[in-house]
Amino acid sequence: MNRPVLVLAFVAGFLIASCGSKPDPNTYREGSIADVSGFLSAVTSDSASHEAAGYVFNGLVRYDRNLKLEGDLARSWDVSPDGLRITFHLREGVKWHDGAPFTADDVLFTYKKMIDPKTPTPYGEDFKQVKSVESPDPRTVVVTYEKTFAPALASWGMHILPKHLLEKYDDIAKSPLNREHPVGTGPYRFVEWKSGSKVVFEANPDYYEGKPGIPRVIVRVIPDQATQFLELKSGGLDFMTLTPLQYARQTDTVDFRKKFNRYRYPSMGYTYLGLNLSNPIFSDRRIRQAIATAIDRKQIIQGVLFGLGQEATGPYLPGTWVYNPDVKRFPYDPAKSKAMLAEAGWKDADGDGVLEKDGKKFAFTVLTNAGNESRAKVAAIIQQNLAAVGVKMEIRTLEWAAFINDFVDKKKFDALILGWSITPDPDQFDIWSSTKTGPKELNHVGFKNAEVDRLLEAGRRTFDQAARKKAYDRIQEILAEEQPLVFLYVPEALPAVQVRFKGIEPAPAGISWNFIKWRIKEGAEGKSALTH
Amino acid sequence: MANVTGANSLFLDTARRLSRNRLAVAGGAVILVLAVVSVFPTFFSGADPSRIDTANMLASPSSVHPLGTDKLGRDVLSRMIHGAHISLQVGFISMGIATAIGLLMGLCAGYYGGWADAVISRFIDVMLCFPSFFLILSVIAFLGPSIVNIMVVIGLTGWMGVARLVRAETLSLKERDFVAAARAQGAGDGRIIFRHILPNALAPVLVSATLGVAGAILVESGLSFLGIGVQPPTPSWGNILTAGKDNIESAWWLSLYPGLAILVTVLGYNLLGEGIQEAVDPRLKAR
Amino acid sequence: MLRYILRRVLLMPVMLLGISVISFGVMHLAPGGPVSLASDLNPKVTAEARARLNAYYGLDKPLHVQYVNWLSRVGRFDFGDSFAPDGRKVWHKIRERIPVTLSINLLSEAIIFLVAVPLGLYAALRRGSFFDRASTVGVFVGFAMPGFWLALLLMILFGVKLGWLPISGLVSLEYDSLSFAGKMGDRARHLVLPVFVGAFSGLAGLSRFMRSNMLETIRQDYIATARAKGLSERVVLWRHAMRNALLPVITILGLSVPGLLGGSVIMESIFAIPGLGQLFFQGVMSRDYPLILAELVLTAFLTLLGNLLADVGYAVADPRIRTGN
């Protein structure tokens, strides 16, 4: 009976003794919750894939540290005085990873693929506004639009595809470049992709901005947050995005800070409570304002984000050029909220704690997606806030696909808690235009405002930033006044990076904007910087 | 009727043998306590399980909050007690559904034989070919993770064992003398099935039902881990444990108590089930 | 015996049809096309684009047309392309993950077998002893402990606190640069925790089955006869009882096939193991119909085969069935 025990002990001893190899200090290992689904960002829509593609590909333009557009594969560009024509001057001497030169033909090819119905891309809309794309010479691309279209410039951040490798494929999503071996112009060359476990890149010595400082990048797929955090602490990862809880309560230790630098900056998105405006209760603006007044955003930011976020006052990121801080706000005031509701005719006549009007109780259901802990917590807090002013809110959680397909797209909801990501270009026509309120369209709360419609049109028809700012400032004022969405908060991105990586400069764009300039600390190279 | 007194003394016999099995008694005691607590959650929990207190988040156990508070400052003890209500409800109702279907299928197949048996048996075989968690996952994801859906789906994917048991039992029972006697007296199929066969086939069903409750509680916790179990803010042991798993090291009370609760409960049901099985198995009497 | 096996084989097509109907039915419980897994709405992903994706994937056709199309393709072993943005052949996605899941689960199963069978037999022989009770509680604790919780506790202890074992994944990132022995060691080290957790939770079933089986066997007449013949207790137990108690294990092995292929969604998520379970879960969450269907059908089909083999094996091994009794 003892022999198996001995064998077990022996095996255990062997396993522990044969301690694994030391991690290579020249490799940057980042954790990702999800696997990459493909490398051609034209045909993927998940952030894991877009981040991986960012190592390999470039667009004509990109966002700089301050989220302003700058040239990438295009050295510079001119906009014609009428705003209808953009001329891109392409960079000289850029090569694809296989050695072929990058030319205007690649740009033309990319455009053709973006408007090709055979390409399953969700981003074709911006390119349909284009009237023509021409290249007078291999270093110049001229794009002409029917109407001035300001967001167009940003749309040329779309990764440029190598024509010589892709032209034989009808559907680029099914090409080996998407699934097996991407070839781009970017700072890193693809090495291997082990589905569900890791993607490996190595520095491109011929990159047009010079060879990146970190020789090797590995993206490790670790689906569980808790596992990822344990890997980080035990030295198996150099980078992960912390949860607010991890940032606030689990990493503020001497030990952790010795190994990792933590950063925080506003993330590009906001969370909101959306009210269905076709519901008679919510069509009354006073009610929406009363609800906004009843919600304690500070408590939400404290409870959900451990204080690591800020109040959202509109659909733009605080601190960016388009953000308008001088809009109407609805500070938390339950007494005032009650008064506002009473003014709108809602009173608690039968004394059960829930308001009534014309014999109907003020009760509704809020929907949110399953498995999102923050949104579940937001819902719980709002539920308690609203109960305090006599509004009964039920919470219903749905699995994401069903939530979007069956409820949001079909507008079968009273209210919902969701997040919008914020794009650096301020055009939000699809979200706020009264022409976008149909089923499956993005103005799912059904917001209709003639002045906003006019301003949205004005904002996208000029390249003049001052003129655009004026339009979007006013839009923010109206949205704040109307509260079609109760804007809740902008969370912070909370990355942690191993201390051996130097050259990180936090900026409005985050930390990864200058990733190719990061380098490994002197002395850490060549020998292990990690000890257990 | 002689049959009834026979069953009665069999029951007493069984109870006596069961009470001598210390593990089963311990399991039964745990279950009893939990059952009482979970039926009257509001009576046993002092604090409101959904009262949010952001000034008091992740407080360690103290006299005010004996099991500490969670990430929204809610009292863990009262969430555990209300969670017991939900978790046991999931366990019992899904077990009930599975047992009902299993009984029906098993009785039909065993009693009528022939085509009914062939069809039902093949259906059972087909269902057993699927990894049940795969089926549960797909259905919950498609229909949404409501408590009702969870209970129904666990039930719908868990009846095959019972059906096989009951079928085998029915096959042997229907050949017995008392069934033949009943039939000779002109009793109809329904009467024979429900008066004569069912009561005698109940013992193995009881055992598998006990194990079914335990299994369902575990399945719910697994679903919660994947984010599609009982949804917060409704507390279940599974989702309390899942919410606590991210800070096992810094707030141990968030995962330890729900983890232990699941462990002890499932253990209790298994030990009791085992005990019943040994106690009712007449073939073991000889020893 | 041949007739018995022939009957089972002839039933296979019927069973397969049943499997296909159930799989397809489960799949179409809820309407809706494939969606991105990201849970923020992105204003750049427009409605027309989503509609186009649906048409592209053929989701706008009526259900029965979809079923017939699908069935005829599956008959030719063509499971179609995944709805995921990678659009790869479903069969390729599954194929590359079968070895991972199968090897881990086979290892766990082997350990379960090696531990549970002696445990059950011994407990039966010492029925009511301290060993019997302790092993009962022990195996049930393994079963009753939520697996992901146990996994995390072990990861913290062995991975973070002691630093003895890797936390997640199948191999180290430096795997390719290791020597052959190093590679074996590296793989083994990564397998310890997942295999242990899997085996610990599965001990209860088999060991309890063995125990009750053995208890039943030693009460049989022929055991009494063997004893009466004056054979030593040792010979009686080992030669006669054990063999008969072990026979039904073949059936159990057949039934454990679905578990081998699909029982590990949670373990694969927590240990970041790219196996079939994780693939299935991601497929379910993103409504990747071809993938879900293929996995359901394939696992069910393999189970069917497993059961058939078990039946045949049982028939061969059991003299009572062999002689046509």
Explain how this protein is built.
The complex is a heterotrimer of chains A (532), B (287) and C (325). With 532 residues, chain A is of the alpha+beta class. Chain A is 30% helix and 22% strand. In chain A, helix 17 packs antiparallel against helix 18 (465-482). The radius of gyration of chain A is 26 Å and the shape is globular. By secondary structure, chain B is an all-alpha fold. Helix content of chain B is 74%, strand content 0%. Chain B has helices spanning 2-19, 22-39, 41-44, 76-112, 114-129, 132-143, 147-156, 160-173, 177-184, 189-225, 237-245, 253-280. Chain B is elongated and about 75 Å long. By secondary structure, chain C is mainly alpha-helical. In chain C, helix 8 crosses helix 10 (233-246). Chain C is globular and about 75 Å long. Chains A and C meet through helix 1, strand 10, helix 8, helix 15 and strand 20 of A and helix 2, helix 7, helix 8 and helix 14 of C.
Estimate the helix proportion of chain B, in percent.
over 70%
Q: Decide which structural class fits the backbone of chain A.
A: alpha+beta
Which series of helices and strands of chain B comes N to C? HHHHHHHHHHHH
- In DSSP terms (H or I, runs of 4 or more residues), the helix count of chain B works out at 12
Distance between the termini of chain A: 36 Å
User: Approximately what portion of the residues of chain B adopt beta-strand conformation?
Assistant: under 5%
The quaternary structure here is heterotrimer
Largest sheet: number of strands, sense, barrel closure of chain B: none
Any guess at the CATH architecture of chain B? Answer: Orthogonal Bundle
- Principal-axes shape call of chain B: elongated
State the end-to-end distance of chain B.
Answer: 30 Å
Structural class by secondary-structure content of chain B: mainly alpha
Let me know the largest β-sheet of chain A: 7 strands, mixed
Q: What is the number of beta strands of chain A?
A: 24
